[in-house]
Amino acid sequence: MFDDKDLLSIDVAKMYYDLDKNQSEIAKALNLSRPTVSKLLKYAKEKNYVNIVINDPRDQSSNLELALQEKYHLNAVRIAFAPIDEEQQIKKYIGIRTAEYLDEIIKDGDIIGVSWGNTLYEVAKELMPKNLKGIELIQLKGGMSYSHYETHDIEIMQKFVDAYNAFGQFVPLPVIFDSIELKNLIDQDRHIANVLEQMKRANIALYTIGSVTKNSLLYKMNYISDEEFTYLQEHAIGDICSRFFDSNGDICYEELNTRTFGIELAELKNKEKSILIAGGDKKIQAIHTALKHQLANTLVTDRFTAKKLLSL
What we know:
Number of strands: 9
Helix content: 40-55%
Shape: elongated
GO molecular function: carbohydrate binding; DNA binding
CATH architecture of the largest domain: 3-Layer(aba) Sandwich
InterPro entries: NagB/RpiA_transferase-like (IPR037171), RNA_pol_sigma_r3/r4-like (IPR013324), SorC_transcr_regulators (IPR051054), Sugar-bd_dom_put (IPR007324)
Strand content: 5-15%
Structural class: alpha/beta
Number of domains: 2
Radius of gyration: 26 Å
Keywords: DNA-binding, Transcription, Transcription regulation
Number of helices: 15
Strand order of the largest sheet: 1-9-8-5-2-3-4
Family: Belongs to the SorC transcriptional regulatory family.
Protein name: RNA polymerase subunit sigma-70
Order of helices and strands: HHHHEHEHEHEHHEHHEEHHEHEH
CATH topology of the largest domain: Rossmann fold
Oligomer: single chain
Distance between the termini: 51 Å
């Protein structure tokens, strides 16, 4: 049986928590003093008529990070708490979380390799300036485009240079050449050789992952022919730095790969921190494959993608 105090405390709790009335308003409505309302709210909690649960996203993220780290044998995982499972929101919050992580780890003398694309652009926009010395920045693949689609390669590089007071090495070359002969000729230039060597020397690499769809920048920018795209749809899981890989984590189109200018997948495995920054339904299998075959040792993703990866 409930006595009058129990019933009154429940009424006060409903007004306070459900109707969002403040204590003064409740006191006036029920002809009570404000201290009495406060005591009744406390009594309702003590009697378990009111249960308050605080959902701290940091707690959930920490558990997801540890689970992913163990599953894929990663050095580090960071989870972005995106509010909804929507592509642009995921990119935005992954960008914020990556910028926070970089603020933790970037130190004097680092050589940072950076890819391009919409996800990396979100990262670049969120970078927090640090007073650092001796930072070098190198673009991890060609980015020049004659299409109206924006790679954001120059903007990304400039934002990193500004944030970390870095020396930036831009790469004003296409990411995929029209012919192997032209690509080989470019590789023979000693200045280009120095750029490729700097990519290898970078101790931190930041890149995203691409899905094999007609929404991909590489396809939209006409770097890939319809015939090549059809082949990739049948054999590729995704791409990292425009290197397309299959379900075994191996390059799946060697002829296209030889025309691609940028860091090799094998070189990413040797980095102190090879950081994959990606999320979203379209990229789940590609992310899973890349992590399974150690193409990255660090992951920044969102909570929705994290849960889906754990369910595979």
